[in-house]
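Tutorial handout. Part one gives the primary structure; part two gives the three-dimensional structure as tokens.
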Amino acid sequence: MMTSCELNPGEIHEMLSLLQSDLNFNSGSGSSDQPRHARMISNRESAKRSRQRKKRHLEELNHQLNQLRHTNRHLKNRLNLLQYQCPTILKENHHLGYECILLQSKLSALCQLLVNMHAVSMDVNHLADYCVSELYVTTFGL
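Part two.
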């Protein structure tokens, strides 16, 4: 990167021609050259500002390029990690699905067992009530 003290060949040429035109202007040229000289200086300053804008724009683009490269590198690393983990996760997912089916089957069997136990319990209670009523009838003759 160039420091503010260093000049490139184009800037050196511009300064020399500016000095040359100043010498010509001061050496007795007529008043008709003043507007031309002022316009020339204005054009050079405008060109210099344009080059500075272009340089700043180029620096901004380089900064954006570096940021995008960094982001791209980060995303590639993340993609590689996910691609590495994917088979393991798919295998684990398959295993969990199988385990889920087994647990649902066990739950269904337990629910059926509870229903059967409840039915037996109801039958036992009904039987007990029947026995008590029969005993009562037999005992008291009602």
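Part three, for discussion. The radius of gyration is 49 Å. The chain has a mean pLDDT of 83.
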